[in-house]
Amino acid sequence: MSELARVSISLERRLLDQFDRLLKEEGYPTRSEAVKDLIRKRLVAREWGKGRDVAGAVALVYDHHHRSLVNRLMEIQHDFSRLIVSVQHIHVSHDSCLEFVIVKGRAAEIRRLVTRLRSAKGLKHHALMMTTTGREIS
Ligand code: NI
């Protein structure tokens, strides 16, 4: 952990009230923690925007009876095996599977993987959770 610095900022009373309501509703213990979280979120968004090395997870929901879709998703994952750290497969119901594909690598390549997965016909849902390797974030 690095040394703490104190900063003083000026903002409109109404904006501060809104911020205080937000941090209360979202469970932040202090303004400092809420501000740090906002800054880190922005830094992570920049890492993704600038195509840095990032980490994340792609969630996929599909019906495993749809065999051609299952094969297609598997093929795509093998094409991008260099990015895939781990895959967690959960049988969420009789028909549905939920898969978490954990990824690490260049943001642009991960986006290409997501585009390919999204193009597979029959997916019930997909979502990308964008996070960081933590290397550039304090
Ligand atoms: Ni399953």
What are the defining features of this structure?
2 domains, 138 residues, 4 helices, alpha+beta, 28% strand, binds nickel (II) ion, elongated, Alpha-Beta Plaits, four-stranded antiparallel beta sheet
Question: Can you describe what's shown?
Answer:
With 138 residues, the protein is an alpha+beta fold. The chain folds into 2 domains: 13-49; 53-131, Alpha-Beta Plaits (2-Layer Sandwich), CATH 3.30.70. Helices cover 41% and strands 28% of the residues. The protein has 4 helices and 4 strands; from the N terminus they run H-H-E-H-E-E-H-E. The chain has helices at residues 13-25, 31-49, 67-79, 107-118, and strands at 53-63, 84-91, 96-106, 125-132. The chain has a 4-stranded antiparallel beta sheet with strand order 2-3-1-4. Strand 2 (84-91) and strand 3 (96-106) form a beta hairpin. The longest helix has 19 residues, at 31-49. It is elongated. The N and C termini lie close together (7 Å). Nickel (II) ion binds next to strand 2.
Beta-strand content: 25-35%
At the first level of CATH, the class of the largest domain is: Alpha Beta
Helix and strand element order? HHEHEEHE
Whole-number radius of gyration? 20 Å
Multimeric status of the protein = single chain
Count of folded domains: 2
Question: SSE layout and pairings?
Answer:
Blueprint: H1 13-25, H2 31-49, E1 53-63, H3 67-79, E2 84-91, E3 96-106, H4 107-118, E4 125-132
Antiparallel strand pairs: 1-3, 1-4, 2-3
The structure holds nickel (II) ion.
Nickel (II) ion (NI) binds at residues 64, 89, 91, 97.
